[in-house]
């Protein structure tokens, strides 16, 4: 492993920050996504949040209140030895409606203080510009990313943060898991569907607008500070053919392409041939401008980031397809060779090595794993400790496979930031009980708890992994 490898952890404003009505922040999409039975209909864009019951609970509004506790939390990250910390800005904290002439100074000052606290401990900030987060006013006025108007709003937001933090931040990520737009359109991009709309057309138009916005942001970043490194991100995890039937192999290839589509554009600068053919078959006609394709071609990303939780299987056999398991939003056929988490996510450490190789072979750009981890129910012992050996086992095997991809296969990897390094609200389910962290936060699914932070067993384990640059794992066969 490189000596400057960026070990750390990852969170997002919409899942941990809270303070939704403080510091001049405007409402964002996360603030209207409820906990409970209506969560998925809203995230899918099929149910209007305005139709929710008045007593609905919105877990993202207060989350774990990092808005007030960030100094305490960053001190714990520093104690673990973090070299970097990946987090996101809340767009509506900086532009409350998305269209102000000037950014909200209180919001910028909050993030400046946050970044300064990280730098005090020599922790490199890795910032996601847009992590499942759109100012609600832009949803109401323009239909969010359905409209090209969002491109200008996003670029103005980027201009404000690039200029403010040009001497304090090096690593930027334009959109979190950009391909989730296809699976949970409202959560991913603030997209709501009207009756009779062609959903596929709407989603790919929004995708085009985000891709152009990402390229324009990349161009702007390099103009403001040539040393900026701008990355893209996808929810990754290869599809395996369920069998050696060529039809299953072909189906797995096509399912992988669905995910690669966004990164093909961001890393290579043009729409791939398979996507153009798909548009023809589906009758999709994108609203574009001639300069879109120039800006896409001339402003590819510097590095590629991704989340990895599980691999998936693909088949054309309808009987087998019925035997699906849960996944990170995207359900998959159950792999008989793998165990699964309490939420049905298949545990596949070798899959992270396969994914690293697939992406590096395809793009030949530096990679960065910015999410990986095990969501599990943690039990506090009588003395307040949390013995999360299952989490240690999951991370140990994935990190070892990651190291093999670097040392044995030659993958160029910048860093590793496991997801939810401190317990936070689950993006998919809205639960607190689905915990990922090294740090336990006292809060339950209904929003009750003291918010007290405490170290889990995995806290010291990960601290040792970082201190030895991963070498400690060689003694943990």
Essential attributes:
Glyco_hydro_1, alpha/beta, 477 residues, two-stranded parallel ribbon, TIM Barrel, eight-stranded parallel β-barrel, single chain, GH_1_N_CS
Strand order of the largest sheet: 1-2-3-4-5-7-13-14
CATH architecture classification name: Alpha-Beta Barrel
Q: What is the approximate shape?
A: globular
Number of alpha- plus pi-helical segments: 16
Strand fraction band? 5-15%
CATH class: Alpha Beta
Weakly predicted, low-confidence segments? none
Coarse structural class: alpha/beta
CATH T-level fold name: TIM Barrel
Account of the 3D structure:
This protein is an alpha/beta fold and 477 residues long. It has a single domain, classed as Alpha-Beta Barrel (TIM Barrel), CATH 3.20.20.80. Helix content is 40%, strand content 14%. It has 16 helices and 16 strands. It has helices at 13-16, 39-43, 66-80, 91-94, 105-120, 136-142, 149-164, 185-189, 199-224, 246-268, 273-282, 290-298, 318-321, 349-363, 389-407, 457-467, and strands at residues 6-10, 84-88, 124-130, 171-175, 229-236, 239-241, 303-308, 312-314, 324-325, 332-333, 339-340, 346-347, 367-371, 413-416, 439-441, 453-455. The strands form 5 sheets. The protein has an 8-stranded parallel beta barrel with strand order 1-2-3-4-5-7-13-14, surrounded by 4 helices. Helix 7 (149-164) packs parallel to helix 9 and helix 9 (199-224) crosses helix 12. The longest helix has 26 residues, at 199-224. The chain is globular. GO terms for molecular function: beta-glucosidase activity. Belongs to the glycosyl hydrolase 1 family. Keywords: Glycosidase, Hydrolase. One of its GO terms (biological process) is carbohydrate catabolic process.
């Amino acid at each position: 492993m490189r000596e400057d490898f960026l070990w750390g952890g990852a969170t997002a404003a919409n899942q941990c920050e809270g303070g939704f009505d403080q510091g001049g922040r405007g409402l964002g999409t996360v603030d209207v996504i409820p906990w409970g039975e209506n969560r998925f209909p809203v995230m899918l864009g099929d149910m209007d949040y305005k139709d929710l019951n008045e007593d609905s609970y919105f877990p993202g509004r207060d989350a774990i209140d990092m808005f007030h506790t960030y100094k305490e939390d960053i001190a714990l990250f520093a104690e673990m030895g973090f070299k970097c910390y990946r987090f996101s800005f809340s767009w509506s904290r900086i532009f409350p409606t998305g269209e102000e002439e000037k950014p909200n100074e209180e919001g910028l000052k909050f993030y400046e203080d946050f970044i300064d606290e990280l730098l005090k401990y020599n922790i490199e900030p890795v910032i996601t510009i847009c992590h499942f987060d759109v100012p609600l006013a832009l949803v109401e006025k323009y239909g969010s990313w359905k409209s090209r108007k969002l491109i200008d709003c996003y670029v103005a937001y980027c201009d404000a943060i690039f200029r403010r933090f040009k001497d304090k931040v090096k690593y930027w990520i334009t959109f979190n898991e950009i391909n989730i737009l296809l699976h949970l359109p409202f959560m991913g991009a603030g997209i709501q569907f009207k009756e009779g709309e062609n959903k596929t057309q709407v989603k790919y138009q929004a995708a085009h607008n985000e891709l152009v916005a990402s390229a324009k942001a990349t161009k702007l970043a390099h103009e403001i500070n040539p040393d900026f490194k701008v990355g893209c991100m996808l929810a990754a995890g290869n599809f395996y053919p369920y069998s050696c039937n060529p039809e299953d192999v072909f189906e797995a290839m096509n399912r992988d392409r669905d995910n690669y589509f966004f990164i093909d554009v961001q890393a290579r600068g043009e729409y791939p041939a398979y996507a153009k053919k798909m548009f023809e078959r589906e009758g999709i006609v994108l609203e574009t401008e001639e300069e879109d394709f120039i800006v896409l071609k001339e402003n590819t990303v510097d590095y590629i980031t991704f989340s990895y939780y599980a691999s998936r299987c693909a088949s054309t056999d309808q009987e087998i397809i019925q035997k699906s398991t849960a996944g990170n939003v995207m359900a998959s056929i159950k792999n008989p060779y793998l165990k699964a988490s309490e939420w049905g996510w298949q545990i596949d450490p070798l899959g992270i090595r396969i994914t690293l190789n697939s992406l590096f072979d395809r793009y030949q750009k530096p990679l960065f794993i910015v999410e990986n981890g095990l969501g599990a129910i943690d039990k506090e012992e009588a003395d307040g400790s949390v013995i999360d050996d299952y989490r240690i086992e999951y991370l140990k095997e994935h990190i070892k496979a990651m190291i093999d991809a670097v040392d044995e296969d030659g993958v160029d990897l910048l860093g590793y930031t496991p997801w939810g390094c401190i317990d936070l609200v689950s993006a998919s389910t809205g639960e607190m009980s689905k915990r990922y962290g090294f740090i336990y936060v006292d809060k339950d699914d209904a929003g009750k708890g003291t918010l007290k932070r405490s170290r889990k067993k995995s806290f010291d384990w990960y601290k040792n992994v970082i201190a030895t640059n991963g070498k400690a794992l060689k003694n943990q066969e």
